[in-house]
Amino acid sequence: MGGDPGQELFLSYAREVARQSDIVEVGIPFSDPIADGPSIQASGVRSLLSGTRVRRVIDWCSELSGSTPVVVMCYYNTIHRMGEEAFASSLVDAGVSGLIVPDLPLEEGSSLRRICARMSVDNILLASPSTGQERARRIASSTRGFLYVVSRYGTTGEGTSLPVQAVELVRSYRQISTLPVAVGFGISSPAHVSTLAAAGADGVVVGSAIVSRIGAGQTPGEVGKFVASLRGSTLRAAAIS
Amino acid sequence: MVKGRFGEFGGRYVPETLVPALQELESAYKRLSRDAEFKSTLRHYNTHFGGRPTPLYHAQRLTEHAGGARIYLKREDLVHGGAHKFNNVMGQALLAKMMGKRRVIAETGAGQHGVATAIAGAALGLDTEVYMGRKDTERQRLNLIRMELLGAKVHPVDSGSRTLKDAINEALRDWVANVRDTYYLLGSAVGPHPYPTIVRDFQSIIGREIRSQILAAEGRLPDLIVACVGGGSNAIGAFAPFIKNTEVGLLGAQAGGLGIESGRHSAPLLAGEAGVLHGARSMLLQDSDGQVLETTSISAGLDYPSVGPQHSYLKAAGRARYIAVTDAHAMEGFKLLSRLEGIIPALESAHAVYAAVEEARKMPADSIVVVNLSGRGDKDVETASAYMEGRR
Lengths: 241, 392
Ligand SMILES: Cc1ncc(COP(=O)(O)O)c(C=O)c1O
Prior knowledge:
The complex is a heterodimer of chains A (about 240) and B (about 400). Chain A is an alpha/beta fold and about 240 residues long. Chain A has helices at about 10-20, 40-50, 55-65, 75-80, 85-95, 110-120, 135-140, 165-175, 190-200, 210-215, 220-230; strands spanning about 25, 70-75, 100, 120-125, 125, 145-150, 180-185, 205, 240. The longest helix of chain A is centred in the first third of the chain and has 12 residues, at about 40-50. At the A-B interface, helix 4 and strand 5 of A face helix 1, helix 8 and strand 11 of B. The complex binds pyridoxal-5'-phosphate.
């Protein structure tokens, strides 16, 4: 999460996470993150309290994007406020490769998708366990970069066990998607990662498990080690910071 | 007009997990709202359980006090539970039941929507859980107790500003996790499509009754209808049946808090800009980064940074007018109605009372103003007496 655990410290954590992942996902904190559970909410609160501004997070992205592909995660009002066109072009200027907007479903996102496509920013769409087949196909054909499969019903947050439907979801999305499939929400242990990799996942997205370690005061090195431990040998791992 | 949109406002900005549930709700509502049995069941509960129709009462002494237009009160304070919230809740609770949902969740600010949901939950045998900001559990304690007595489980919310906005955030998070067996009974004309439409339709019984009652009493439509606007459900319910009658003025009173200039208020229609919160694009109090601002109001039910999308549309289209009424002026309305008419209004409704008196004053004696008295003030007596003693 951009700006967590503070304006100075953020980049040192982000660089460690980036070193251990194939993609680093940078969150822009939002006052009302309805798709997030307690860990990422707390991370956003820490960031906002330390004075994080949207422009600043995008500047940090440009410092990271030279060495690792960067994907930005933010709520739609952040984009709406700046304007879709201006927001997307600020990402381009910062060398950002992709954009995830958890509260912008297929129907509301067509203009942003068009703008992103024109500017060569991958607008990554989410599919969920509640998504029906027909809709899943439309999402799979509209997403760019990769397909983000939400592993379970609920908000982000660490889970002890992998949701029962996750493996089944990965198998079915693997079949309909021509792009890599990455699984997120609740992924927090090497066992989760290897199970998903065996089911055909090309990547995992890890958020809460990382930011809760940052919140608990682990050093960048310790957090980096945790991310390294998650990486299955066959997996392209994406990570949130 | 695009489905689910009111001009540029409205829409469905939610996580993917909720989209199928909202589509299911939309089609269930479409089917049931035309179903004769559903309509007669709802009519039965509204009449025999809710106490509808509510009176349209000529407030003689308030009229004399204002010295202008004749003022009528639409007595939603007399609905079961003590506020207009019942109208929407009963409709949606029946919808939930017919959709086969066993568990109902709700958010509440003033506690009136939570109480109404607990009432319907008890009457229909639904498990009811209510999210309420910690600050509101304190200032509307009476309603917290009522909800618990009615068998609802109340979850105090400690995130953000610990008020209505945060209660909605938490209810949405619950819904994302439990969407398969849970119905989210949203309490105002806000949120993603189809909620603003469903809530408006169920609340429109207010406006339909006003129409037939004022025609019976005066032989013509009113010149002005006044209602307070938090999320905007009582107001849209009173306004909607009159939108096409352009000779009827529509006036919404938002919470001016300590005054618009102070920056401490809850009046997005006066001081907000378009933004997206809780699934809809509407006017929103936000900073230059799009972070939602904290709001201030003496009334928990109006303490909200956004507003139902149809109000943003009515304002943009010039069909309705909106003003801000400060805490101090709302307290004047509260005292006036109590002393002149023997009716203690909810602090929310007191904003509309004040606005109506100010408007009536400027209008000729043969004109007619209807105030939607959205709720009764029992829940507010502690806040009001503390305010009058200068303790807040
Ligand atoms: C009595 C009363 N009036 C008005 C409101 C504001 O809601 P709305 O604007 O949806 O009518 C509330 C909300 O709690 C209320 O309890």
